[in-house]
Amino acid sequence: MTRKEAWEHGRKILADAGIEEHTLDAWYLLEWAAGISRTQYYMEPDQVLDKEAESRYLAGIKKRSGRIPLQHITGEQEFMGLAFYVNEHVLIPRQDTETLAELALKHIRPGMKVLDMCTGSGCIIISLEKLSRKQRNICKAEEESFFVGVDISGEALEIAQENVNLQGADVRLIQSDLFDKIEGKYDMIVSNPPYIRTEEIQELQDEVRLHDPFIALDGREDGLYFYRRIISDGRKYLNPGGWLMFEIGCDQGPDVSRLMKEAGYEEISVKKDLAGLDRVVSGMYNI
């Protein structure tokens, strides 16, 4: 089977299976299985795949046609320009979440202590450490910041640790049920907590409903359970003037903003993602 034949074959199988991005997914699987770039493909589309690459590709196509997420097949996903390991124990990093990381990055200064609650794969805290370090190198800051990722899941933290090692990031990981094992105060807390209403999880795409960890999706009855806890308890762990920033569901901006206002946070704002939907709520705690 040539490269061209493989791509066409995989594309057809995925289209017949109802995979919306069948052309793109078939390409990504070919790129992964054969270890080729798009340039290499177009230079030699009729080159025959070796048996190992062909077998790997067809196995990947079969899995994807069964609604297994592409990233669980290839084992990685890009976030903020960095590559991250992923598997069924962590949420797949999504572009929407880059809105949170980008906002947090604008507020990080040398010497700050940053906590990522519900860290999962570690993509947010690792990206903040890596990219802010780049900024610090440019300005030659003397003080070093301190970055911590927290999750209740030991399996998620194993993946996060692999990503810390992969990126060479200076990030500490702690297994804790929210703030139970957290000590000290921070200048910023960021979080992409579970926020899907329990009854809505069964309505999600199969790729999410069947393959993302339920614990990372379930925001309980109204989707606000973890926001309430982090907003309330987080006050004890923020330095005066510290920031709390959340990713939110697109309809949760008013509710999360209200919860933060009632808890005494100031300068509360809602930021939209690239699709124009509410995606991040942030506020400062000064008490």
Plain-language structure description:
The protein has 287 residues and is α/β, with parallel strands linked by helices. It is built from eleven helices and nine strands. The strands form two sheets. Strands 5-4-3-6-7-9-8 form a seven-stranded mixed sheet, sandwiched between helices. Strands 1-2 form a two-stranded antiparallel ribbon.
Short description:
The protein has 287 residues and is an alpha/beta fold.
Q: Evaluate the radius of gyration.
A: 21 Å
Per DSSP, the total helix count is 11
User: Strand percentage, roughly?
Assistant: 15-25%
- Poorly predicted tracts of residues: 138-142
The sequence of SSEs as H and E is HHHHHEEHEHEHEEHHEHEE
Q: Main β-sheet, in a few words? A: 7 strands, mixed
Characterize the overall form. elongated
What spatial order of strands do you see in the largest sheet?
Answer: 5-4-3-6-7-9-8
Query: Structural class, from helix and strand content?
Result: alpha/beta
Helix coverage percent: 40-55%
The count of β-strands is 9
Mean pLDDT: 93
* Terminal residue distance: 67 Å
